[in-house]
Hints:
With 276 residues, this protein is α/β, with parallel strands linked by helices.
Amino acid sequence: MAAWDGPKKGAPALWHVKGPDGEAWLFGGIHALPANIKWITPKMKTAMDASDRLVLEVVGLEDSAEITRTFQALGNSPNQPPLAERLPVDLRAAGEKLRDKGRVNPAKFETLESWAAAITLAGAATANLDMVREAGVERVLAKRYRNRDKAVIGLETAARQFTYFDQLPEADQRAMLASVIADADNAPAAYRDMVTGWLTGDVARLEQAANRGLLQRPQVREQILVRRNRDWANQITDMLKLGARPFVAVGAAHLAGEDSVQTLLEARGYTVIRLQ
């Protein structure tokens, strides 16, 4: 495993949302991080102490067996073409190399849908990186809130999250698959850049990362980013109208750019201030 050689601590971006009936905090996270980096700041602690609940994209990520069952149920259909047939000719050798690197049985692709194949191979591309799911933002924060007897809720279920990919047209699923393979050799540098940008609160850098690759395709961006941001803004609005004080931690890409959750909340009249 390649050791993490980037920053060892930082202050990721944090926003405060204020409305007439309630307040919220927005924090962009990363699902898997190097172990032993420090990112919970005094301002974060103050915000979390003032909040009454933690709101994540999905709860229960620590139940890997259940997540795997959901993925397998949605990601498999009979009579899928071989991996090579779903790739441009110039990526076929690289695709098979990545498949072998991840020790994925070629027979799996007889049933694995293209979006699920992309996620499977993305795991192979990042397998040797110093990234630990247990150190990811969701798991660390969920443990903190549960230890304080505060509610931890989700904006989506795992099934719904996978369904967004499952509903993509096959052409977009294959583009996703090709993008994973084409970018596999750059995965270490891309991951380092993303985590460094996150730790330093460089939202512009995160926005650039969010606008690369597959998310440059308008239909894909709408389906897996913008549509979800609108749904989450609706849910946060409902919480605020009830006087709740949620600390909302979602993927950092959802809090960057013109379609970000905080931009949508500002458009509804909420005051959004960046705290760090």
